[in-house]
From TrEMBL:
InterPro entries named among the record's database cross-references: DNA-bd_dom_put_sf, MerR-type_HTH_dom, MerR_fam, Reg_factor_effector_dom_sf
Keyword annotations of the record: DNA-binding
Descriptive protein name: MerR family transcriptional regulator
Sample GO molecular function, one term: DNA-binding transcription factor activity
Organism: Mesorhizobium hungaricum
């Protein structure tokens, strides 16, 4: 070992990395000591390792996980800059979604929820032609429009009525940065055959708790207040949701759509 090597303590002070961080990065293979004394266990670092150490420290300040940092360290400075800009844009979109959600919660707390007309209804068994895929709230509208167009076109080409109501079934939680399974379906009659990624299934007869969504609350995140109010109403009335919610188009009483949960007592 040559004299310019620095003990871990001095190297950490020079690069603003704690002893704990240096041990972690050594274990992860991000910043391995240039020399470890076999008798004392002291760890020594070479001066030329300082730029890498400072880069690791800056990347950690961004909150990046160790695995992501390891991948970035192996890139050229130009490629690393591209990856970081892409990551920053994604973080901006995620924070924008959080800001929308927080604003919706603040509005609900300040002004109360919207005036709602929640009721029960019995729905007969219904055959549907549907498409199911993962979606976020960002691409949900485009997906719904395309799926509706494709399903109605398939019904028309098959010689069946294609003006049935549309329903959207949210099988998972869907947000701006979290995909969920969403099924878009059109009610139909007759021996319709599935084709491609379009499927045919029968929705059983059921009782639903439903609410027409008032104007101004149709879009995310304000629509979440309507979901919350309907779920709270179901609990207050001693009922239980038996499946995931759906949205039906057009809605009742002139609403663009209803939100409904199948329920049991």
């Amino acid at each position: 070992m040559t004299r310019p090597h620095l003990l871990a303590g001095r190297f950490g002070a020079a690069t603003r990395l704690s002893p704990k961080a240096l041990r972690l990065y050594a274990e992860q293979g991000l910043l391995v000591p240039a020399h470890v004394d076999p008798q004392t266990g002291y760890r020594y670092y070479a001066p030329e390792q300082a730029p890498r150490a400072r880069l690791i420290a800056r990347l950690r300040q961004l909150g990046l996980p160790v695995a992501r940092i390891a991948a970035l360290l192996d890139l050229s400075p130009q490629a690393r800059a591209v990856e970081l800009r892409t990551w920053l844009e994604a973080q901006g979109e995620r924070l924008a979604g959080h800001a929308d959600l927080v604003e919706a919660m603040v509005r609900q707390a300040d002004f109360g929820g919207p005036a709602l007309s929640i009721a029960l209804r019995d729905v007969p068994a219904t055959k549907i032609v549907g498409r199911r895929r993962l979606a976020t709230t960002i691409d949900l509208d485009a997906y719904m429009a395309q799926a509706q167009t494709d399903i109605r076109a398939h019904l028309a080409a098959s010689g069946f009525a294609h003006d049935g109501s549309m329903s959207v079934h949210h099988h998972d939680l869907t947000t701006r940065d979290s995909e969920g399974w969403v099924e878009v379906a059109i009610a139909c009659e007759g021996p319709v055959e599935p084709v491609g990624d379009l499927h045919v299934r029968l929705l059983p007869a059921r009782r639903e708790a439903f609410v027409p969504v008032p104007a101004g609350h149709e879009d995310f995140p304000l629509v979440l207040a309507v979901y919350d109010a309907l779920e709270a109403w179901i609990e207050r009335n001693g009922l239980a949701a038996t499946d995931s919610p759906s949205e039906t188009y057009p809605g009742s009483d002139g609403a663009r759509f209803d939100i409904a949960y199948p329920i049991s007592s």
